[in-house]
Design brief:
InterPro entries: TLDc_dom. The protein has 235 residues and is an alpha+beta fold. It is 12% helix and 27% strand. Strands 1, 2, 3, 4, 5, 6, 7, 8, 9, 10 and 11 form an eleven-stranded mixed sheet that branches. The longest helix is centred in the N-terminal third of the chain and has 9 residues. The protein starts with 40 loop residues before the first helix and ends with a strand.
Length: 235
Amino acid sequence: MLRAMHYSPLVNHLNEAPVSEESSDEDDKECETCRSTGANESSSNSDLSAENTCRPPGISNEDSCEPILSEESKVLLGEQIKQISMHFPPRLTACTWTLEYSTMKHGTSLRTLYRSMHGLDCSTFIVIKDTDGQVFGAFCSSPLRVSDCFYGTGETFLFSFSPELQVFKWTSENSFFVKGNLDSFAFGGGRGIFGLWLDGDLYHGRSHTCDTFNNDILSKTEDFFVHVMEAWALK
């Protein structure tokens, strides 16, 4: 049930304190881009072949204002992509998703994830499928990065398909949106626990109910193991 409102240069950060589990609180218009009035069939086909993006499975090219993916997600189905994108800020509902990091392509390393995000200036979307088959993750208004303290904005949220989509928005209780270092990163906090926490190997994770989002536990149990993780840049 959906809760209403209620996918380098790291050396300088090597001395930052770990984010451990015991840390303290801190749019009627046409949207087909390849059509042009009066163009002949050959020209249209040529333009379409030049496309370097794709609609997710389950979403037709005739659908307007839908996200476009740089490649197919190995975690989310087309309908799930459509559902979750409805909760993005309005400026991002028809954005392009670019896969910046995947454990299936890049291995399991938080350092590699940070490198893939370096230089980006856009919102990001993290989605995880754990070894129990549960799908969950987070939307962040900025790229993941090494930080001394929590960062982000009230647009940040957590979500879970369990199996129906649940979205956990900011409660205004605190501003503990995102924090990370070379050993782990976390979303949401309060009273020494995190809404979503992952270790430096991006393999072991943990989820608790936290004050920032008042979320349910995202995984089936508090502790989980990552099967696939993707990090998307939303542009």
